[in-house]
Specification:
With about 180 residues, this protein is mainly alpha-helical. It folds into 2 domains: about 70 residues, no CATH class; about 80 residues. It contains 5 helices and 3 strands. It has a 3-stranded antiparallel β-sheet, with no helix packed on it. Strand 1 and strand 2 form a beta hairpin. It is elongated.
Length: about 180
């Protein structure tokens, strides 16, 4: 996504600060402060969404033929919004990261999505469990010494380390998949 072009903003800032510094910085530092304050006011660019013939979406701050101007609303404030005590006590204390204006979907659609997610994760879990079984078998086969090889030889130790590492990776993947499956509704 392209952002707003802030070059003119920074050029104005540099030029005004140089001008103030060269003219009267030692006489009036307040002029520099006021200039910096004015120049640092929030800036919001207009954003356009364009979908080309191939279906590729491009966001830009420049108007393009066929692009739709997005209404992003006001910029978020950095000042916390204070509510009165009655409002806070009447509503349950619920920490939600989803804004109230976020689009909602019906429970049937969400259940279908959760079902697909559960199925995909279950398939991946079965695949990882089979890969773990294969890795354990490979380790058992790899533990047998080859002709002329000792259990302390570097080639044997390296081979066993690689096989144990593969087992560890599959076990970690299985644990992660089980944890993820436990969060699916």
């Amino acid at each position: 996504m392209k952002g707003a072009d802030f070059r003119p903003f920074f050029i104005a800032l540099v030029c005004s600060s140089r001008l103030l510094y060269t003219e009267s910085m030692h006489k009036s530092p307040i002029k520099l402060f006021i200039t910096l304050l004015i120049v640092s006011l929030p800036v919001q660019a207009e954003i356009y969404k364009h979908i080309d013939a191939n279906g590729e979406v491009t966001y830009t701050d420049k108007p393009v033929k066929g692009a739709k101007k997005l209404d992003l609303g006001p910029m978020p404030s950095t000042t916390p919004v204070l509510t009165d005590k009655a409002t806070r006590s009447s509503s349950p204390s619920r920490n939600t990261s989803t804004p109230a204006s976020f689009p909602r979907i019906d429970s049937n659609t969400q259940n279908q999505r959760d079902s697909v997610r559960r199925r995909v994760l279950s398939d991946e879990l079965r695949t990882e469990e089979q890969s773990l079984a294969d890795a354990v078998t490979a380790k058992k086969e790899g533990e047998s010494l080859r002709p002329g090889e000792k259990s302390s030889s570097p080639s044997y130790l390296t081979r066993i380390d690689k096989l144990e590492h593969a087992i560890k990776i599959h076990r970690d993947n299985i644990n992660a998949l089980r944890k993820e499956l436990s969060t699916v509704r």
